[in-house]
Amino acid sequence: MNASIQYFPRHHYPVIVVGGGQAGLSASYLLQQRGIDHLVLEKHQAFHAWKHQRWDSFCLVTPNWQCRLPDHPYDGGDPHGFMVKDEIISWMERFRAAFEPPLFEGVTVTRVIALDVGGYRLETDHGPLTADQVVIAVSSYHLPKIPEYAANLPPSIHQLDASAYSNPDALPDGAVLVVGTGQSGCQIAEDLHLAGRDVHLAVGPAPRVSRFYRGRDVVDWLDDMGHYRIPVQEHLTEEQVRAKANHYVTGRDGGRDIDLRRFALEGMRLHGRLNDIGAGVAHFGNDLKHNLDAADATNARIKGNIDEYIAQQGIIAPEEQPYQPVWEPPRDPVTCLDLEAANIGAVIWCIGYAPDFSWIDAPAFDATSYPKQVRGVTASPGLYFLGLPWQNTWGSGRIYAIAEDAGYVVERVADAAVQLPQRRLTGS
After folding, report:
1. What is the tens place of the pLDDT at every residue in 166-185?
2. Coiled-coil intervals in this record (predicted)?
């Protein structure tokens, strides 16, 4: 007997969703609402990344009111607060429990193959399946970016990426070098700093934004201004937008700025971008001042846009003085760090993640092997993506716009299903 028939109820489904996170289950909810028969396959367990790839003190950096799954908005009592990890998971699990998706957990999809006759064959570790249409909802953060020179770190130094970090006590004794200043890098550096750990931070070109400005959360202002609803086509090229780092800020303890200059005043060692490691020495670029100034300039530009909006709309809002840097790097910053002399016990790589869609064999990718899609729809009939960063707007890939993006994709799935025979693939 076919192994897949033993494990799955059937060999063939009209629609298979790959991925059981917020994107995949949003698609499942909307498919169920339309009465479209489908299956959801998840490699680990539902919401795995939220449960196992976020540090213990993790919290949202955008307000709770931006949490919107289909027919399941934020339902707590603090819409302008920032849910912590366990609260996020609980909120998502309530969504799952509300409709009981046809979810198979612990199933790894190893190949998705477009068939000449139409439809798709899915190879899994529990046997093959076929589907008329497939929704890929596995985000694009698959492989941690670890530079080749990481292999030059002394074996006595523990190294890990942001997804493996849990808390300061889980790290070896000694100082910690955090590499990268996107959202994860800055928040992990802050977590270590607040715990009293000796922190070295390699500062990259990521921008920053204030938490609050002129009496409101900056996110509230930008939402009123329509910033989060601007489609990707109206920004830079899609590739440039995807490559931009997120602005660093935090929702911790009710929300506040992350000011790396203030951390420096408090004892954190700031360095420029990490360029190399060799012979026990870390080599940094001489770009610390430039990177800090550029981050502040971005923040000032956002505030300027808010000022213009306030003036244009005639809004009465409190005035706020321009930011003044509280610390400046030395004229001759340290560009070489002896790791042993600095007592570095751990290095945390926070420089992003690369996509890996090599397991999908379909004409749906650009020259860089990234999904080529418009609002999730590809040129390969019946193949869709959901939950990609900037799939349509800033909110794509985030909880904020996943309901809207899922609605669009599921509508396209439903339209295509009408034109298909009831069972196009026989599964023989």
Report:
1. 999 999 999 999 999 999 99
2. none
